[in-house]
Specification:
424 residues, 4-stranded antiparallel beta sheet, 43% helix
């Protein structure tokens, strides 16, 4: 064992207790820093100078204070790094975001990384992974299992329950990019092995949804007007929002009596692990958005507010559980399916979002306004509550465009005025 000499920091003063230490090895003329983690395990790092050892130890102390577990050393295995990485992002937002992933997203990330990356490459060192390993991984996922190659991986290991489509592989590519970016930031690897381009999507898999014709959308709205809780379908159709966002609306978010009627999409109703129904934040931070609403939607929500199917808190309340919001299953089974069948259309609730996007685009709505309305903007719209109304007023052209598409005499307004229904 080489002879070691413990050095002191600065003018003969040792490092404070609990902040690590370092030794100088005379035979190698290098410094070995050591830091004990809260779980009792130690991490080590070799440096050329004492100042570099001090800087590394200070960095580990700062990381632990933030609630993370530091990872160091190029000899760390894929399994060890992935488990530490998952633990870190479960307690704090991923780098560059303002809030942590939702429970369902976090559970999906764990499954994908552990099954798709750790199972074939878990025993590899992080520094050993190269671009060909990632490209081979994508080929395996398309087949659902590992295939013969020269990478030293057991052939035939089942990675996925079924072969992944291109869109699923692209999502996994984004997840791996974050993982290896963090590994590079922690100096576990010198350069990320990720391919520069995302895997392509074949034309036959590039399916987003079906856009209804205006006459088909009209029939859906007309049938929704006749049924209990039909305002839920009208809201999803004329807001172009996600189903969870529609079910997460509360009356405190809806402002029907303002000069410019508007609402805020703040939360989304989802099933989390354990089959529990929870109102979580919207899908992304950028999806938190205030929008102006069309007169047709104002009429529908005003009528719905006077009905016995709403609640004091939730816009669309559960018919069985007092004080709770409507579940996605109840909406699909008891609200959407009867309206869809009566209207004679074949589509999903999400296709209403595709329909609104398509029709307003053809109507000539500026792209920037449309992106903000649907929550696809690259600039976050999560501003302070007092500023939300001002931001919502910027989407007034979107609301007017919806009214123009539906015509001045929509089924909802005709019902209040007593005029006969006329199709466009």
């Amino acid at each position: 064992m080489p002879e070691a000499k413990k050095l002191k920091k600065g003018k003969g003063k040792p490092r404070p207790y609990g902040t690590g230490s370092y030794l100088f090895y005379e035979n190698t003329r290098r410094y070995k820093a050591r830091y004990f983690l809260p779980n009792g395990k130690a991490v080590y790092h070799w440096t050329a100078t004492a100042s570099e050892a001090d800087a590394w130890l200070d960095e580990q102390v700062a990381i632990v204070k933030e609630g993370k577990l530091p990872i160091s050393g190029k000899s760390v295995t894929v399994t060890a790094f992935v488990e530490r990485w998952l633990q870190n992002i479960s307690t704090e937002a991923a780098r560059g975001k303002t809030s942590p992933p939702g429970p369902n997203t976090m559970e999906g990330n764990r499954y994908k990384v552990r099954n798709y990356l750790v199972r074939p490459y878990g025993r590899f060192k992080m520094a050993e992974l190269e671009r060909e390993h990632i490209e081979a991984l994508y080929s395996w996922l398309r087949a659902g299992q590992t295939l013969p190659n020269r990478l030293g991986v057991e052939v035939g290991v089942q990675l996925a329950r079924k072969p992944l489509k291109a869109q699923g592989i692209r999502h996994f590519h984004d997840l791996l990019s974050h993982l290896f970016d963090d590994a590079e930031f922690e100096k576990v690897i010198q350069e990320t092995p990720m391919p520069r381009r995302k895997p392509g999507i074949p034309e036959e898999e590039a399916f987003v949804g079906v856009a209804l014709e205006p006459s088909e959308l009209w029939r859906v709205l007309e049938e929704a007007d006749k049924r209990d809780n039909g305002a839920a379908v009208v809201t999803e159709a004329l807001l172009g929002c996600r189903r969870g966002e529609m079910l997460g609306l509360r009356w405190e978010d809806v402002h029907l009596n303002d000069e410019v009627p508007w609402l805020v999409l703040r939360r989304s109703v989802q099933r989390v692990k354990g089959n529990q129904l929870q109102a979580l934040r919207v899908k992304t931070v950028k999806s938190l958005r205030p929008v102006a609403i069309s007169q047709a939607l104002v009429d529908a929500l005003s009528t719905h507010r006077k009905s016995p199917w709403t609640g004091h808190e939730w816009v669309f309340a559960s018919p069985k559980l007092i004080g709770k919001g409507m579940s996605p299953e109840y909406f699909h089974r008891n609200v959407w399916s009867p309206i869809r069948d009566a209207a004679g259309v074949v589509c999903r609730p999400h296709d209403l979002r595709v329909t609104l996007r398509t029709l307003t685009h053809l109507e000539g709505v500026p792209e920037g306004i449309s992106m903000g309305f649907f929550g696809w903007t690259r600039e976050s719209t999560a501003e302070h509550y007092t500023q939300l109304k001002k931001v919502a007023e910027q989407t007034v052209p979107m609301a007017k465009s919806i009214d123009k598409i539906l015509g001045q005499a929509t089924p909802l307004r005709q019902k209040q005025s007593g005029q006969p229904t006329a199709k466009p």
